[in-house]
Each structure stands twice: as structure tokens, then as C-alpha cells.
Specification:
alpha+beta
């Protein structure tokens, strides 16, 4: 394709080494949980991409939605600190799948967390874990971003409280960590606003690489391809780099071609970035209902549902659809996404609403 920057070298050489064997993931009872992330965090830049402390208040606005991020004196929570939340979210989702009780407060073994997130297990790694928890608890967010069928306009922290137990002495190893997730984060998990991440996410060594992958996973999803202007990508990434420097960093990612699940190409003529589903990984993966629980719906299903039932609150319809499924005896569905869209279409046919201006927080940027 003319004007496109992309090639296919050995991508593994640009990833961090896998520090632990697969078997280590079983140290915690659910440490082999599939990685989960909540979609509001993937859509908006809550985290710093800098390895140096950021203490400046940041405000982000897009399509009528806004958020203001106020760091503590220790700095804004970083995208590496986010590993802690991904681990916690993964534990909760796995317990939900097993039908086990869950709550906002989790007690985890610190070594399990470090192994799960592909980190080292030396003293400095345990200390970095403590610092990350402090930054998560100290970062204050004010927003009107929606989770589930609610719109939250007040302030919250990502972590409400934490407790760390370690052996006596400054060099004592951490025994366990207890974290209380904020109601906002827990609400997003209960609303099944979660997506699966590739385990190689933790092998991406640069902050921007992780953020770019998150956006690709959120917007490209199971589609064969997705494109976005470089300027909009910069805005969504939360990077503080200039457009010129950001363009070069994106070109380097395209050249190395090491993002999990997706290939990236840069169109110099249009100043656009194209994401392509690698080897059809997400396109071909089925999401059937197992007759016991419905899986989280892909973002494409919500987009199709909005078109099928204009004017309706799609998330309220999803709740009604899940309740209907349970009341119908939990029939096995070959394609839950298609069933949900059909449910929305039928609801609209029975009681059409006047189309309203789309104000959804997760609207993808306009593509040219």
C-alpha cells in the first residue's frame, strides 16, 4: 500500500523476556486468570506514560465527555501501576466465572502479582509495587464518563484503601497486600465492561506501546481493521509528546511490528494510522454461551445495537436482555452478540423512539 510504513521483522526480539514459566501462574488459586481490563480505562488516558513523576493536573475532553486527573505529591498513577488493577480485575472476573463470591476488597500475595505481570521478584520490585499502590490510591479523578447504566460526575480514586503486610525490617519481604477497589472500578466490572488482553501485554516494554495496544484492543477489537488520524490517536493516548515526536514513535512501532494481536501501519499521505487484526485472532474466535453464563459483549455489538434501536439506552437494553435470557431458562446461544442485537431490534420495532443525538462516552473517533 503506497505511503504506508510497516514491515514484519522478528517481533519477539522487541518484547521484554518472559521472566517466569507458565507454571508459576498457578501459585495463586486464580493466578492463571485471563487478563481483563475495564473498557472505560482503555478508552480514556487515566495513566501517565512517563517514567518520571507527573504532578501536573491533566484535563481530557472528547465528544462532550471530560475527565480531570489530579495526582498526589508522589505523582500520577502510571500505566505500569495499572498492572496492579489488571491483576485484581482478572481475579474478580475469574471468580465470577466460577460462581464464587466477590467484593471490592481483595487480599493477594505480592509474589503472585509480580509473577502474573511478568515482573522480577527482587527487593526493588516489591518496593516498586508499594509505590505503585500509593500512586493509585493518591490519584484523584473527576469525570462524567459512564459505567453501566449510570453516569458518574463526581470524583473518585482508583483504589479506595490498601494494607500491606511485610516481615519486620525495611528489607523484609512483603507477605500480602490488601486492596479495596473503588466503587467506580467495581461497578464497571459488575457491568461486564471488560475485555480480554493478550498475556504479551506485560512484555511490552514502553508505555506508549501498551497504550497503543489498549486502544487497538478497544476499537479494532474483532474487526479486520480500524483506522484513526494520528492527531486523534495522540489525544486518546494521553502522551505528552509533540505531534512530530509522536509520529516518529508510531512509525517505530509499525516498523518493529511487535504489538500482540494487531499489526500497525502508518499512512504518511493521509497522516492516518491503520490497525489490522493479526492472523484473524479475534475475528475468528467464537464467543458462544455455555448455558451457564453470558460472556461480555464485544464493542461492535453495542455499535450495531445503537443502529438497531436508535434513541434507546443500549446498556439498559443489555440489562433487560440478560434478564430475559435468565428468565427464558438460559438457552444456549451460538452468537450472544447477534442475539443481543436482534433483541434490541425487536424492542425498537415494538416501541420505536425518536433518535437522539449520540452522546455515548465510548463513541469511536470520526474516521476519514
Amino acid at each position: 500500500m503506497a505511503g504506508m510504513v510497516s514491515k514484519t521483522p522478528n517481533s519477539d526480539e522487541h518484547l521484554l523476556p518472559a521472566r517466569h514459566t507458565k507454571g508459576d501462574l498457578f501459585i495463586c488459586d486464580v493466578a492463571d486468570a485471563v487478563l481483563k481490563d475495564i473498557m472505560p480505562q482503555m478508552e480514556h488516558p487515566f495513566y501517565s506514560l512517563s517514567k518520571k513523576p507527573e504532578t501536573k493536573i491533566r484535563r481530557y475532553e472528547h465528544n462532550g465527555n471530560w475527565l480531570e486527573i489530579i495526582p498526589s505529591v508522589k505523582g500520577l498513577a502510571t500505566i505500569y501501576d495499572k498492572d496492579i488493577l489488571i491483576y485484581c480485575i482478572s481475579q474478580i472476573v475469574e471468580k465470577l466465572k466460577r460462581g464464587e463470591p466477590v467484593g471490592q476488597r481483595l487480599r493477594i500475595t505480592s509474589r503472585d502479582l509480580l509473577v502474573f505481570t511478568n515482573r522480577g521478584t527482587s527487593g526493588k520490585d516489591y518496593e516498586a509495587l508499594c509505590e505503585g499502590i500509593d500512586r493509585l490510591a493518591g490519584t484523584r479523578i473527576t469525570t462524567n464518563i459512564r459505567t453501566g447504566d449510570e453516569e458518574q460526575r463526581d470524583g473518585f480514586n482508583l483504589v479506595d484503601a490498601s494494607s500491606i503486610r511485610r516481615k519486620h525490617g525495611l528489607d523484609g519481604r512483603l507477605l500480602w497486600v490488601e486492596i479495596k477497589l473503588s466503587e467506580w472500578v467495581f461497578n464497571a466490572i459488575r457491568s461486564q465492561e471488560v475485555l480480554t488482553l493478550n498475556r504479551d501485554y506485560f512484555r511490552l516494554g514502553k508505555p506508549l506501546e501498551r497504550r497503543i495496544y489498549e486502544l487497538a484492543r478497544k476499537h479494532c477489537g474483532r474487526q479486520s481493521a480500524w483506522q484513526i488520524s494520528l492527531e486523534t490517536l495522540l489525544k486518546k493516548s494521553g502522551s505528552q509528546s509533540s505531534l512530530k515526536l509522536f509520529r516518529q514513535m508510531v512509525k517505530n512501532i509499525a516498523k518493529n511490528d511487535h504489538l500482540p494481536d494487531y499489526r500497525l501501519a502508518y499512512d504518511e499521505e493521509r497522516d492516518m494510522v491503520l490497525f489490522m487484526n493479526r492472523d484473524g485472532k479475534w475475528v475468528e474466535r467464537p464467543l458462544p454461551s455455555d448455558g451457564a453464563a453470558l460472556p461480555p459483549l464485544p464493542e461492535e455489538a453495542f455499535e450495531q445495537a445503537r443502529a438497531a434501536a436508535p434513541g434507546y439506552d443500549i446498556y439498559a437494553l443489555e440489562r433487560d436482555w440478560r434478564q430475559w435470557w435468565v428468565g427464558s431458562g438460559k438457552p444456549k446461544l451460538h452468537s450472544p452478540a447477534a442475539a443481543f442485537v436482534g433483541f434490541c431490534r425487536h424492542r425498537h420495532e415494538l416501541a420505536p423512539l425518536q433518535r437522539e443525538k449520540d452522546r455515548n462516552w465510548d463513541e469511536a473517533p470520526a474516521l476519514s
